[in-house]
Every structure is written in structure tokens, then in C-alpha cells.
């Protein structure tokens, strides 16, 4: 399915086969202390209102609390992406999907990162992690680290 120039099926397949396993491996190797020392700075996290939330989420992931970590991460992401938009424009769209489809956000973050957000938490044609978790389509016992 192609929407807004994105071939969702092919893009998600590539995410699943190449990108996500690399990200998982990278963070699996990192301790909570290493994560905190690496990301507790303005270079990587200056745009976050509250870095403590990010560290709390990583701690949940390390303790195999995937469901709760995903819910909190999508909330944190939505809020902070909205804050990024607010710097550039006077109003922020009401829906997360509209935020990540914003051309203004694309100009701030670049097309690659914006596409990643669209694939993970975007339209119903994407993986749409936020809705899958938020509406209970995935149960606690159906996921593992």
C-alpha cells in the first residue's frame, strides 16, 4: 500500500529485517548507567522537556516492562514532537498522526527520521504502535524483550 509516497509494506519489511534488529542489539548491550551517561546531555536530548522520563522508559525496557515502556514512549514522543512544532508554528495538530505528517516537523527533523516516525506510529497503514498498545490489541504476555 502506498500513501503520501510511502510504500508501507516494503518500508516496514526493511525496518523489520535490518534497522530494528540493529537498534535492539545496540540497546541490549547498553546498561542503564551507560544509557544515562550517553544521553543525559543537550546534544542528544536538549529538545526533551524532562529527560527523567526517557531514563525511566529505558529502565522499564531493561526490566522487560515492554508494554508500559511503549505506552510511555509514545506519549513522551507525541508531547515533545508537538513542542518542537510549537517553536516553529503557533498551533499544534491534535492528532499524533497529523504531527508526524507535518511538513514543518520534516524540515526540523529531516525526512529519514520523520519517515521512521510515520512507519512506527503513523497512519493505520503503518505499524501504528501507539494505537496497537493503547487500545489493547497486544496483551502483556504476547511480547518479550
Which structural class do the helices and strands define? mainly alpha
Q: Strand order within the widest sheet?
A: 1-2
Number of helices: 9
Q: What fraction of the residues are assigned to beta strands by DSSP? A: under 5%
Q: Sheet with the most strands?
A: 2 strands, antiparallel
Identify the overall geometry. Answer: globular
The parts where pLDDT drops under 50 for at least 5 residues are none
Number of strands: 2
Tally of structural domains: 1
String of helices and strands: EEHHHHHHHHH
**What helical percentage do the residues reach?**
55-70%
**Gap between N and C termini:** 29 Å
Average pLDDT: 84
Query: Whole-number radius of gyration?
Result: 15 Å
Short structural description:
By secondary structure, this protein is mainly α. The protein has helices at residues 8-29, 32-39, 42-45, 51-62, 66-88, 96-100, 103-109, 111-121, 129-134, and strands at 2-3, 6-7. Residues 90-144 form the DUF4209 domain.
What does this structure look like?
This protein has nine helices and two strands. The longest helix has 23 residues, at 66-88. The chain is globular, with a radius of gyration of 15 Å. It has one domain. By secondary structure, the chain is an all-alpha fold. Strand 1 (2-3) and strand 2 form a beta hairpin. 14% of the residues are buried.
